[in-house]
Structure formats: structure tokens, C-alpha cells
Amino acid sequence: MIYRNKTLTQKELQGEDFEDAIFKSCKFPGLVFKFVNFKNCTFDNCNFSESIFDSAGFTICKFPGCKLSFLDFGNTSILNCDFSSSVAENCIFQKLKGGSKSERKNLDLRSCVFNSAELSGSVFVMCNLSRVGFQKSVLENAVFEKCNLEEADFNEAKIAGCGFSDCKIKKTYLDMNGFVDFGSSKGFALK
Asked: What does the pLDDT read at residue 54?
């Protein structure tokens, strides 16, 4: 099924399962994604502004050119998703324990990709991002808290002001600019 230039309504989404669907330039204005699942779907240049994800699932989905800013993925299942070239500023990537609004558990994002994404100000809490690609992404003022970043690739990413709190960093890849930005965020200065 292909949806083009459509503004979807709450009624069209509620409790639905979408599979092999393509959404081109669609809008989901202020919708609550509750008990809705997407499998093998592509969202091309879609706008999710002011939407709320509550018991939603995305499996093998792509979001090129999508506006995903200010979303909380705490009650969302994300598996094998490609967020490359999306705008996801000030988002929260976390996994909340069932029924809790603040208690967190580990979120496995190893099967996801964030290359060339706009992720400024976004927060990743207790995420397994081992071997995940962030190449050429904008991560300025983003926060990684208690994340596994082993072998994650931040090559050519902009990480000025990015915070890495209590993260597992081993063979995590940075280019020279990223290395300087990381050092600066820790209080180091070049002389």
C-alpha cells in the first residue's frame, strides 16, 4: 500500500498493523501511536510533529527525510530501523519498564542506523549502540548516558557539546574533529 501526501487521522492509525507500506510526504499531526505496528515500512519525508508513541512498534522501517523531533521512544519497540537522513532533534531514546513513567531498562538499538541524521539535543539512555553507525550525523549537545558504544562509528559526526556519561567506550570510532570535540567536552584544550 502506498500513501502519498496524506494527513492521517487518529482513527486510521488506532490499533492497526501496517506491513510493506510506503508513506511519502505524509503527516501524522499530534497523533497518539497506541497499539499500532509497522513492519517493513518506509516513511519518506514524513512529519511526525507533536505525535506521541505509546505501545507502538517499528520493525525494519526507514525514515529518510522524516521530521521526528521532540519524540519520546520510551514505550516504543524499535528493531532494524534506519534513521539515516532524518531530523530527530531533542528526542529521547530509552526503554521504560512496563507501566512506569520513569523507571528505565536497557534498549537494544544495535540493529539500527543513524548515519547523516540530525540528532542535536537528543538523549540516549541505557542504550546498546554497539557497532551502530552515526557517520556524518549532527549530535551537538546530545547526551549518551549509561550506553554501550563499543565499536560505534562517529566518523565525520559533529559531536561538539555532546555528553558521554558512564558509557562503555571501547574501539569507538571518531575522526580528528570528533576527537577534539570529545576532548573539549571533557575539559581538555589543545595548546
From this structure: 85
